Amino acid sequence: MGMSGLAGMADMYGPTDEAEAIATIHRAIEIGVDFFDTAEIYGPYVNEGLLGRALAGRRERALIATKFGFRIEDGKMAGVDGRPENVRRAIDGSLEHLGVEHIDLWYQHRRDRSVPIEETVGAMADQVRAGKVRYLGLSEVGVTTLKRAHAVHPISALQSEYSLWERNIEGDVLATCRELGIGVVPYSPLGRGFLSGLVPELATLGPNDYRRLDPRFSDENYSRNLVIVQEVARVAARHGATPAQVALAWLLHQGADIVPIPGTKRRSYLEANAAAADLVLPAEDLAALGALQPTAGQRYTERAMAAIDR
Fold first, then answer.
1. Helices (H), 108-242
2. Which of 20, 156, 195, 297 has the greatest count of CB atoms below 10 A from its CB?
């Protein structure tokens, strides 16, 4: 697996502890995790700064991915922005926040439908030529956008939600990635923690926890979605593993081009997640997991779904 998503270190799922977060990043490097995924909007800017501090003196041991694509006003997201001028602003800001000379993989976080993808990716490609970025990626885009973007500059990775909890990229999107040689980086591979079997009911989540807005955590859908976790837990019990490890192992079994980025704020979960790379699931377990009922509820609010390009 070798990857770690960092959104959870930016208060998306409740309070964070910077010392533990940095210790978790250091431990990740020690056990061979070398890919760290962040974004300008996490904070905003706070998470890039945290990752930069954690990697001080360790930069050569890490591949850094970050994302841009929003207009940020008064410290808050104020809509998407794929204009070339925002591309140029964002890269210089990310380099400064991270304290590095180049980004290894740079994504457009969400497509801006008011700007042709060719213009955005063209400006991103300029940053590759300038030595500020090594590889380009897109997040949550569909087949047409992928093909148009790839014609301007090679797209190395698509970061989209993919898990036993969310199967939307299976089919045309995944096939197109494989046709074009684009790697797939599933975010939220544990269904925002639901597939770990450890997520409490909505009423017990903290007041700032993002999942309070997630339709799949609503009272009605929560109980229906427990059926999915129960099946994952049954498979886990047969292997002496945790449900989270099974969910990650299922993703890893979908292809060598699929590299999930489970996020965590704690070293204990980090080590358990990394161990999923060694879990081999037999065909009958893969089939049972693949045949699970669809998750109840839309994966985002209507407003957030509007930013998904399909």
1. 117-129, 143-152, 172-180, 219-239
2. 195
